[in-house]
Amino acid sequence: MLERGEVxxxxxxxxxxxxxxxxPNWQSRLPGLRYEGxxxxxxxxxxxVTGFIERFAATARAPVRTGTNxxxxxxxxxxxxxxxxxxxxxxxxxxxxxxACNQPSVPRFSDxxxxxxxxxxxxxxxxxxxxxxxxxxxxxxxxxxVQLAAELQRSGRPVTLAVGEHVRxxxxxxxxxVLWWMDASGVWDQRHDEIxxxxxxxxxxxxxxxxxxERATLDLNALAAMGVELVGRWSMVxxxxxxxxxxxxxxxxxxxxxxxxxxDTFDEWALTSGRDxxxxxxxxxxxxxxxxxxxxxxxxxxxxIRSIVWATGFRPDYGWLDVPVVDxxxxxxxxxxxxxxxxxxxLGLPVLRQRRSTFICGIEDDxxxxxxxxxxxxxxx
Length: 381
Ligand SMILES: Cc1cc2nc3c(=O)[nH]c(=O)nc-3n(C[C@H](O)[C@H](O)[C@H](O)COP(=O)(O)OP(=O)(O)OC[C@H]3O[C@@H](n4cnc5c(N)ncnc54)[C@H](O)[C@@H]3O)c2cc1C
Fold this sequence. Notes:
The protein starts with 8 loop residues before the first helix and ends with a helix. It is α/β, with parallel strands linked by helices. It has eight helices and 23 strands. Flavin-adenine dinucleotide is lined by residues 2-5, 9-10, 21-23, 69-70, 97-99, 101-102, 144, 314, 320, 348, 359-360.
């Protein structure tokens, strides 16, 4: 196992200070290791995730060569030639587990933002003190965007949040964590070959969730109540002005509709599995409030906005992979972790084999199944 940094490198170096997992502790499972502390319904800090993964590496006696950056992987004879900062390796098969979120994804028009406005990505951000005083424009309303918008607004900086397509979820539903419902009702068991639009499922934004001791919901209504100003998707910069899409009402009602459908699925499962009586009565969140007159543009030179936080997602980095298996969008082409190059496999990507694959708790099943393919390949079958 080759790792350019240390074990749990992304959790050590690429997370902001206040980040906690949005998945509850009991859901943090790795093969043979589960959370056994006093707060199964709590959410781990990034430091605790690092400790958890380190513990796993130690108990599994994972043969990790840290500080070894893979700079190139190419086909050679009947296997691969792997070049690293620690020398070359030849191997018959390679499992790519280099992560799905190696770099922040920032739109090109960020180049047109006036230099007086500071720009940060979640990789640069550590805490609000990193930003100048004054207004902040947070771009993107998925997990990262809503979490940073709330933290920055609480720090006394007026926050404007640009909202595109998003996934709205309450933290708790009928008394249980909403991710408990995902797990129990089988939504997360849905397999890659059963999903109608797999490409879309793999690109789905992360849900509007935060892990806090209060187990609070952090949807757009919660942010608006804190004083965060909501505007539409940021589409371009023209003459030093940020232009936002209209039609917030449609974007909000689509997210509300999808949420209602999901909660219907949970209720249906509760009834058909005979467990309905275990939970409080079904409930529905209020629709997302549409601002009376959302601004369609903002003058970036006026001084109102002093900094921009790009919470516009993350993407993988396959700059080192010299095998033609990456599409024009920079995504690895694979079928449930089996890549279209003999002996090349992948793990740790969104919806790799099931919806659960996007999360830490998905790796156990995925690894077992991908290893079966790998073993068959090595056995020459
Ligand atoms: C902001 C954020 C919040 C998240 N929150 C949650 C959550 O609440 N719950 C959850 O289940 N999941 C969450 N995830 C997803 C989570 O990151 C993954 O579930 C988990 O960390 C994936 O582990 P991984 O080992 O597949 O990838 P990574 O953690 O990305 O690890 C990949 C490793 O490969 C190394 N690497 C990359 N390229 C090379 C190279 N060329 N040579 C050598 N080494 C290389 C990296 O240094 C890194 O250590 C979150 C992700 C992000 C970005």
